TrEMBL record:
<keyword id="KW-0472">Membrane</keyword>
<dbReference type="GO" id="GO:0004508">
    <property type="term" value="F:steroid 17-alpha-monooxygenase activity"/>
</dbReference>
<dbReference type="GO" id="GO:0042446">
    <property type="term" value="P:hormone biosynthetic process"/>
</dbReference>
<keyword id="KW-0349">Heme</keyword>
<dbReference type="GO" id="GO:0016829">
    <property type="term" value="F:lyase activity"/>
</dbReference>
<dbReference type="InterPro" id="IPR001128">
    <property type="entry name" value="Cyt_P450"/>
</dbReference>
<dbReference type="GO" id="GO:0020037">
    <property type="term" value="F:heme binding"/>
</dbReference>
<keyword id="KW-0443">Lipid metabolism</keyword>
<dbReference type="InterPro" id="IPR002401">
    <property type="entry name" value="Cyt_P450_E_grp-I"/>
</dbReference>
<dbReference type="Pfam" id="PF00067">
    <property type="entry name" value="p450"/>
</dbReference>
<dbReference type="GO" id="GO:0016020">
    <property type="term" value="C:membrane"/>
</dbReference>
<dbReference type="GO" id="GO:0006694">
    <property type="term" value="P:steroid biosynthetic process"/>
</dbReference>
<keyword id="KW-0479">Metal-binding</keyword>
<keyword id="KW-0503">Monooxygenase</keyword>
<keyword id="KW-0755">Steroidogenesis</keyword>
<dbReference type="InterPro" id="IPR017972">
    <property type="entry name" value="Cyt_P450_CS"/>
</dbReference>
<keyword id="KW-0456">Lyase</keyword>
Amino acid sequence: MIVWLGGALLVAFGLILISIRRQGLRSHGTVKYPKSLPSLPVIGSLLHLGNHLPPHILFCNLQKKYGKLYSFKMGSHYVVVVNNYEDAREVLLKKGKTFAGRPRTVTTDILTRDAKDIAFADYSPTWKFHRKLVHSSLSMFGEGTVAIEQIISREAASLCQTLSTFQAIPFNMEPEITRAITNVVCALCFNTRYRRGDAEFQSMLSYSKGIVDTVAKDSLVDIFPWLQIFPNKDLDILRNSVRCRDQLLLKKLKEHEAAFCSETVNDLVDALLKAKLSMENNNSNLSHDVGLTEDHILMTVGDIFGAGVETTSTVLKWTIAYLMHYPEVQKKIQEELDVKVGFGRYPLLSDRKILHYLEATIAEVLRIRPVSPLLIPHVAMKDTSIGEYTIPKEARVVINLWSMHHDEKEWVHPENFNPDRFLDENGHRVYSPSQSYLPFGAGIRVCLGEALAKMEVFLFLSWVLQRFTLEVPEGEPLPSLEGKFGVVLQVKPFKVTAKLRDVWNNIDIAT
Ligand code: HEM
């Protein structure tokens, strides 16, 4: 009892000291902090955030009361929310390095063996080295050149063949899309692919779901890490899913080690092994403080799967959902495909330059339903500022892409789905109609897979829409456009009918 009371007194004393320090800082004439939501000791602003709305919408709505840049306390963490492009660009581009930190949380630490990956690792020489290595390995596979195009096209052909077997039968495309995108990432990482029903693939799907459902959801344990001591079903699911993932990744790594030959680098795991071996043999000029352990290799590959599958497949699902709401947009994409590509060949990456309307449609989907509406939180690595406001070291900065992509000052009727806003008067693709558009983030933490994701979304959609018309099955409702907030902004499951277009009746659709 005495120990407990002593502890409570110490905590109270600490809180008073922190509060005095803050008051002290505020009293300096030049220091101005962002307006803050009310907060209580220990729980912070939790009572003011306990709203039924998903966070990106709640944070957007809170602007009315607190302005575009405001702060709140999440347990003991000071969080700043940015809702406008001027401040977002300052954080991501002008002061990119200052804001390149990432918060450590209980769930992401379980996922990444204490941030030995890329997405959740803090800015450091090791992180910089890993990021560069993966970037150059992805380029090695020919981002934008033949190799990657062939990998994606092979999966697009396989997807189309599967769709043709469902002729006129309503079905949920989700598993097929996930398999296609997973196979692209498998080809890049392991030089393998999975057939339908493969047992290893099924286990991959099941652990990925476990991770997506439980990681980085701002669950209470991420706000108050000491809650870990209590039984927690979500943490159990996460730990089990991560264990299954790690067993599979380790198996792949050992297979690659056994077959490794430094002359032939076939995939990302080979490239990472080569870098690790060359560092160990001291053949590399890289400084010694940059480590590349087995954990780093495993977590980096885990990251590429984690960041590369759910995101890209979600964009495809959102696009299909919107095309079902707007059949006239689908028709226009098909007319463009018919005129510019025809039926004698399959679409190529080089067609991105001529299929303006399809490209504009993809851009509009990424605007209206950004996959990552709050980016991944950034952390201030030192005392700094955003605009006129002082931002203390270790502040977590949340960039609300949703607010930026729905800003009425930047977009005419932002809630309307309108691919034309990404076209100029000649019908050519406009890349950035507003500065308030950053679906992949920007600066040194920009999405590592942006180029790959754009190629995948373009090729999958052009292959499918060249051959099929996607429709709402009779008696089924239109897909919900509401979205479900999680690691990504998910689409609720829906059914489609994929009708083979007449002209393909006597042609092999996989050619
Ligand atoms: C359309 C699909 C995708 C979208 C919309 C998307 C979007 C994003 C966004 C918004 C971020 C956070 C940027 C920030 O925190 O400032 C991010 C980070 C990241 N993405 Fe993607 N992404 C997509 C696909 C991919 C793919 C295919 C890969 C893998 C090859 C990938 C790998 C990553 C990685 C590793 C990071 C962390 C970067 C870092 O922290 O340095 N993403 N992505």
